[in-house]
Amino acid sequence: MNTKVKAFLVATLILLAGITIVLYANYRSLQEQTDSLKQQISTLQQENSDLQDENSDLREENSNLEEELQGTLPYSKANGTLITLWNNLNGTHNPTWQELKRFLDSDNTEQILYDYNSFICGDFAERLHNNAEQAGIRAAVAIIYFTSGPPHAIDAFYTTDKGLVYIDDTGEGLEFVVTDYFSGTPIYGLAKGKDKVAYISVGKDYGLIELSYAGSTEYSFYTSYSTKIANYDEQVELYNVEVDAYDTALGGRVFLDEPEYSYFLNWYNRLEDERAELNRIASTLPDYYYKPMGIVSKVEIYWNTADWNG
Questions:
Q1: Are 211 and 101 in contact (CB under 8 A)?
Q2: Mind listing the pLDDT tens digit for each residue in 91-134?
Q3: Is residue 283 pLDDT above 60, yes or no?
Q4: Within a domain: residue 213?
Q5: More confident residue, 275 or 287
Q6: Quick one: angle between helices 219-250 and 260-283, nearest 10?
Q7: Are 290 and 196 in contact (CB under 8 A)?
């Protein structure tokens, strides 16, 4: 074999060896890329599985929330069934104080007669809550517990300017006390249905004031209001004591001589001035003074637990 042919064969072998080396290197690179892609695919599959599990958990959580929104409150109505409420899932908002008052003025829940056998506080709280939610106003039911006696159901609203406000719309059937102007004797009876602001502080009396007279939602306002009522009652009692003293001293006489005539006339005029002042104070007070239902021991507020069966 001549030298030129040998050289050509050697060069060809060297070239083939180089090509083989390059191809092997490319194969190794492709193999590594394939392994990497397989690893990425495995990771993505795991992430997808995790996402599916997370989605399943979210669905379960959402289902639980929906079940919660279709629950019942631990408080019975007159017919023995639990309070069942409807929450507006299309959206509600926290009202302003004025907006809440306008809604309460337009609602007639408080005009229903309280009847232990057919419509009690749980029924009133349920109805007002549902009406508010249907009107787009976020509402809650509050269960008030006392140091003695049964609990009481009312409604709660979170206003944007007054904060948390309690409303008791229990209709005619609540006992009230008002002092008769002439006798000073407490008279007990059944108040007409009124929208009432409830004043609640644990460890203190559960207080009520008619909505139209509720100048504030703070408990301190109720304290001042109660003091005003107590002072008025005391003034009436003192006035009636003085009237009795006047009548006793006059002894039924019609004609008097001086200076006794002027003495009794001055006394009479003073009593008339006191009476006018009492009338002025009375004009600033509501028709009913609601007796405190008891001392509050605990308050439970339910914003989201609801069920609507109608």
A1: yes
A2: 889 999 999 999 999 999 999 988 888 999 999 999 999 999 99
A3: yes
A4: no
A5: 275
A6: 160
A7: yes
> Is residue 248 one of the residues assigned to a domain?
no
Q: What is the pLDDT of residues 230-242, one digit of tens each?
A: 898 889 889 999 9
Looking at the 3D structure of the chain, how many domains does it have?
Answer: 1
Q: Where are the beta strands (DSSP E) in 27-181?
A: 140-146, 152-159, 163-168, 175-179
Q: Which range marks the domain in which residue 63 is found?
A: 1-69
Which residue type, as a one-letter code, is found at position 185?
Answer: T
Indicate left, alpha or beta for 30 from its phi (over 0: left) and psi (-120 to 50: alpha): alpha
Q: How far apart are CA 307 and CA 222, in angstroms?
A: 34
- Cβ burial of 291 (10 Å; 0-12, 13-18, 19+) is middle
- 140: buried, middle or exposed (CB in 10 Å: 19+, 13-18, 0-12)? buried
The pLDDT of residue 66: 45
Q: Please check whether residue 55 lies inside any domain of the structure.
A: yes
pLDDT category at 70 given cuts 50, 70, 90 is very low
Please provide the DSSP assignment of 68-111 as one string: HHT---S-B-TTSPBP-----TT--BPPPHHHHHHHHHH--GGG
**Residue 176 maps to a domain:** no
